[in-house]
Structure prediction request, 367 residues.
Amino acid sequence: MWKIYRPDSIRVWKDPEVVRRLRRYRIIIDQEKHAKYLLAKDVDTNMPLDSPTDELWEEHGRLSVIHSDYVENIDSGTERVVSNSNAESSFLDLKIEIANRILQECHFCERKCGADRTMDEKGWCKLGSESRVSSAFLHSGEEAPLVPSGTIFFSSCCFGCVFCQNEDISTNPNSGQVITTMELAILAEALFRDGALNINYVGGDPIPNTHTILGSMPHQTSNMTQLWNSNLYCSEATMKLLVDVFDVWLPDFKYGNNACAERLSGVKNYFNVVSRNHSLAYKHGEVIVRHLVMPNHIECCTFPILEWIAKNMPNCLVNIMGQYRPEHKVRRDREQYQDISRRVSGEEMQLAQAKADSLGICWRPVS
Prediction:
């Protein structure tokens, strides 16, 4: 039996376009295919984990190809799942070691601030080596195919959005409670037992917590979809660590140009970085893109994003969101941010939706 929990989910899974574009995710729900993180445990390596970093990356590239073939063969039924042998380590272990080394000169996000977070030197995100979770629960407000979603909200973020709607956790690295890798695994397993269709790492943003998230996976044992819910301003190194173990991606695509991103979120080279990472996610998994429509940013942001998605990610789903409201710094200084000092209008939403329709983008089933 399928794990379907509410009318919205039942309706959305009757849509053939949703089924086609999220086929592997649905079959994991049915326990007929295996989550990628589990299969990463079966791919062995005999390389010592204290080897030089460049050698670890070389081995990572080799194992990524092997793992990809293994997933494909398991999915097609041409190969059976095998338990990890007596090899020294697994592909997943290798990823965790590399992630812990990145933490020593942090470049999980594209800011690449270089902080040694293992020595509790704070990065741009103001986090040291510890991760903190603000809340975790079964979320019924996510996109219909994801509900109920086992959401885990991490504190802090690598963005500085002037309109942030959850500034209480995004701008406060001390919110929530410290969580270890084992505790995170126990939390994920508990959410799955309670009926979660996926484990949804969000925030704030999960990017600064990559080491903790990967480190929890050896302690997770259930066949449950791993979902990365992020602004996707990851470094390329981080994306290489993630693409082999995450089944579904729920990335934001906020800006259609670099200038708007730098002014409103304080990040450089945004469109180039995030479009690169969307392409990588799309190549390796199934994707629901979130685009938050903002007032007065239809021509400069919404239209270019939708055009890029139609050209480069034609089989993804898109959630065109109208929930923007002037919060955080915008609420306190509407004069400085006049262009986004109001809610998005119905006319602007209609323009965004009509554009998506004209491009053949599938957006209605996930709203």
In short: The domain at 7-366 is CATH 3.20.20.70 (TIM Barrel). The two ends are 25 Å apart (CA to CA). The chain has 15 helices and ten strands. The chain has one domain: 7-366.
